[in-house]
What we know:
Layout: E1 2-4, H1 5-27, E2 46-47, E3 50-51, E4 64-69, H2 74-78, H3 84-91, E5 95-101, H4 108-117, H5 125-128, H6 140-146, E6 151-156, H7 157-162, E7 169-173, H8 184-196, E8 204-209, H9 211-219, H10 225-251, E9 256-260, H11 276-279, E10 280-286, E11 296-298, H12 302-310, H13 332-354, H14 362-379, H15 384-408, H16 414-435, E12 443-445, H17 450-467, H18 477-503, H19 517-533, H20 537-541, H21 543-573, H22 580-607, H23 623-628, H24 633-651, H25 657-676, H26 692-718, H27 728-744, H28 750-770, H29 774-795, H30 819-830, H31 832-848, H32 852-855, H33 861-886, H34 893-921
Parallel strand pairs: 4-8, 4-9, 5-11, 6-7, 6-8
Antiparallel strand pairs: 1-12, 2-3, 5-10, 9-10
Helix pairs in contact: 1-16, 1-33, 1-34, 9-10, 13-14, 13-15, 14-15, 16-18, 16-33, 17-18, 19-21, 19-33, 21-22, 21-28, 21-29, 22-28, 24-25, 24-28, 25-26, 25-27, 26-27, 27-28, 27-31, 28-29, 28-31, 29-31, 29-33, 33-34
Amino acid sequence: MNVKLAHIAVFNFLVFLFSFSLFCYGFFPLSFSPSTKSSLNELPRSVENASVDTNSYKPRISRAVFMLIDALRVDFIEQEANFKFLNKLVDDGKACLYRLKVHPPTVTMPRIKAMTSGAIPSFLDVILNLGSPEMKLDTFLYQMKQRQQKTVFYGDNTWTNMFPDMFHRQGENVDSLYVNDFYEGDQNITKFLNLELQMYDWKLMILHYLGLDHIGHVEGPFSDKVPGKLQEMDQVVETIYQTMHKWEKKYFTKPLLIITGDHGMRDSGGHGGSTQPETIVPLVVVSDQCRKSDEIFLQIDLAPTMSILTGVAIPHASIGSVIEPVLQGLDNEDKLYALYYNTQRLISKTELIMMDRLHATDMYKNFEEAKRLHVSFMKDTTNIASYKRALMLYSSAAKKLTEQLITSYIRYDLVFIVIGATLSISCTVMAFFQILQTPSTETISLHPKLFPAVCLCIITFVFLKILSFEKQLSVPNYALDAALVGLASILSTIWWLILVLLKGIEVQRLNLRNIPSYKTLALWFGIVFHCLSLGSSSFVEEEHQTWYYFTSSIMVLLTIQQLQIMNHTIGMINHPQTDAALIDVCRDERNQFCISSVAFLCVHVLIRRFNQTGDKWQHIPDVGDWLASDGNKVWLSLSMAVGLFFLVYQICCLGGLLTNVLSLTAALLIYYYRAVTGAVSFFGRNPPNSSVCLTIFWINLLEIFFIGFLPKMYRLVMGRRNPKRSTELYDNCLIIVALLSALLHKPHNVLLVGVLMASSRFLIQRIDRVIEHSDTNLMFKVIIHYWLGKAFYFYQGNSNSLATIDLNAGYVGLNHFDIVRVGIFLTLHTYSGPILSFLMLIHHLFNANQMPRVESDGLSSRRRILSLTNSLTMLPVSFFIIVATVLRDHIFVWTVFSPKLMYEYFHVWLVLIKIILVMCLLKTNGTN
Length: 928
């Protein structure tokens, strides 16, 4: 049986995607906590041998307002000019300001889960943030409902999605993910707030304001709109406080106002990462019965604290400690009992994990001593020394127990991790063996022998059976065995294919005698160095530096090599009998080449400074920040205009006259749209706010598509062939992607689209001049375009932190949330560099396939591109899988390695689309 190597490459990548999925399933568990619910019957009825009256565990406040300001940073609160009233309350001792530490990922849905349940959310909740599924964990909201304490809610519809039957009344913002809404949603919340303050049937009101977060996503934390929004929030605080003060004086009640943020905001405006502005949020408790503290508490501490204040059972999943300074309104006995209650719960949870080892720890000894002192105080309530000592020991033990539980609740499924890693490494080895096959080989003969194949499959099955022994207790044997048989078949097939490919390797190809060795070494050194660099968290955070260095280096290397060829050519014709005019022409060409090359490299030096990225220097102002400031709007407008016209100039090399006219019109419409939104200036005037410009833009893109599509269909129906127009449809689709990328990019980043296309042509010209061997020529084109896409991915400000995802790009031209269009726009914007770089590579290969030099080799571009693409994708991912597995207990596993894994997983799916395009567009033997 003969099988094409191209088909084997596709099979190999599909198996790799499957293996990566298995690994991620084991590395990112979906839930850390059970859905068991607590009950007040579980309240401890004694401390040591001293009985306790559980009736004293009751609500300590009459009603509470929980005000959540999305993306509220600590420094926002500390700016007295923005929160005048709130800061006055703090200064007068009528409110206390604390700091909370937020665990990553710093996005809304996991943070709501943490605050209400006291549990550490799964890292994969960052993906579920868009859908916000119903929450099954026990929460203090559920406990309040069980005690007939009504809750009302207004704000982000994430709450209503997570708690669909929890609220007595609700008014959610149905388009809470629509980041262009700065004011309307918040104003609606305040309107309902004023109505609810006149009602008396609720015990807890939750308000989730989104305007600040939206401003941050679009314009950043230093926008001139931020002070106004903070002042608006301060006015809301004043309204609530004045009403609460009236309640207190009229009804002698103890209302409570709590103000906090679900997460912070990084200096670039996004969130989702682990920087201090994202992970440290304020907690303001407006009450005269609180004590100030400089200690940093955890966000999960809110759940047990709110449970104690409202007199309900602490949620079963909670592993947080109690924020003791908030409980100043409790009597000493009640406060000790509340701390004992929560600490006892934490001890029980820790015992399930540590068993008898817990009894030898300091935290357990502290707990035992605290209980003895607690009993002593119960017998003599004037013994303040025992009270303070017990209070301190309970708090200390609880915090240490919380830290231990946080570490222990990070669960990995090592079976899936090992199987996924093993399969991934096997697929990577297979991909490299395909690269080393004889160039003329397009198919391999597969004649498996039954006995060895069956033995290999049985051995693999036994290995998997032993590995998954622990799972047999929870999964029916027949289902587990069926899954293991399937995995064993896949693994044995991969290993058998590796052995077959090993026999077809041409060792002489490793010498690469037809080209200077240093160029090839530079490529492979860059690939290997990048993989090894992923073993360091600092290199992962600053990965852009790796790509900047190698992309620039290969550009300089190819430029120097072509310059040497030009000098050699001039030296060869420099003969007395040679026409002097020819030498002058060659010298002029060389001078122009030098000037253009230096200018091109200078452009790359400039655009890499458009957007600071990474972690260490991300806070430093960049060119984009300077252009985005109000005083430099003219320069931003000029920058965007230059970027659009340069893009149209690059498009002119791809399309015909009508396509170019439509592209120019689309570029002008992009500028007009940004002028309508106020990003750039429009001849000193305010253009009418109309969506017609985008409607015409979409019509233009549709026309560009049909200009290539209709003639293609006509030729197919009529059976005619026109080699000169065979790539017209593809080129028009490339133009559409480029124009759409320009629409989604920030105004100062529009220039990147045209520069990427120009960079691709720059490199292709040099590769064709420097490298004659067709197989090596193609290898350089594929690898360098892969590097180029990575470099431009970081040029636009992306990083391995989730905070750099620009949500604003997903809502261009939309006035509501649409998960399909928002998802497509976000994907195209975030990965525009790799996508456009790959499309440009295919465009150049179409043109190269028409050149006699390539056709004469009779090689398959498709097979070689697939094998190279597989290797470039699989090698760093497989290595990083090993790193993440080994360092799964590293301190940065959730802040550095996990976000990188999520980015890589999504990128692998994009590579699958690229492979499908290669299979569909490129045919064997260099024909189109």
